[in-house]
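Supplementary Note 3. Input sequence used for the single-chain structure prediction.
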Amino acid sequence: MSTPVSDEGLPWLDDESGPPEGSDGASQLSAEAPVELREATASAAQHQLRLDKALADLVPEFSRSYLQQLLGQGCVRLNGQPVLKPAHKVRAGDHVVVEMRPTQQSQAFRPEHLPLDVVYEDDHLLVVNKPAGLVVHPAPGNWGGTLLNALLGRDARAMQVPRAGIVHRLDKDTSGLMVVARSRAVMDALVRMIAAREVSRQYVALVWGAWSGPVHRSVDAPIGRDPRNRLRMAVVDLAQHPGKQARTDFDLIDTTGEVCLVRCTLHTGRTHQIRVHMASIRHALVADTLYGGSCGGPMQRQALHAFRLAFRHPVTDESMEFRVPLAEDMRLALDFWGLRYN
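The predicted structure, written as discrete structure tokens, is reproduced below.
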């Protein structure tokens, strides 16, 4: 099986996604995978090097990241003893044996025949309606069953495009529209368009609390990793913490006093942007427990749906606009609270 071409140098627009929530970041090895042993003796040049750095010298055809994964799984022996710590210092003359097993990460880019709701398709791109619960890209804790695997299983050409043509992401529990490129040239064009804010993306969010103030609000606040909780993002002070500028427009659609239905328009694409900006104005999304939103009614996942996507076709220059109805659980939630949505 071939491997998708390298995406080195390709900007990744993280959109609403971030590290898989609840993931411990560990990569596992395939227990039944074939094993190839590589043996080497550390030279004077490797003396006192970290083991992971020495391995990169001794087995140069493999990446340091991959070798670190092998280390973590006990597949490296030094003088007959397994060593797990990448920082372990090597001495000249040490005998190193490496079990070259494929990791789940290295096997993640494989075709899988999974159902996809394709809203639009031509020779250059796809627009898909992602269901809640579907992970977009393989990552620790979700090495298979992703949108990327489904795209590879649907079209053999996707193997020749970085990330199978995925140019932006949605969280696992966010439903709605995504555009996917079918060639590297179209992928590069779409990435440039998103960076230039030439792709319009709108969402519907169900949030807690009574709306106050104008029906239109714009939040322009930088987002970075939460310094108190590395699993979360937060509005940050760029003078004190790393982050990126972020802007979201919010328009009230309807409210009951207990909850609000809000249209969200992205002007940037930062990790968890809508969720973070909503929480920052004290309107956490229903069922978004990571950002303080308790579950309610029928919602058991964050109440966020990407309902509209619009852009000019990167090849034909045709104006394209796509809309999809609310996901079933959000429709039931609106009925539960008596909210109106047109």
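The chain is about 15% helix and 25% strand. The CA atoms of residues 153 and 291 lie 35 Å apart.
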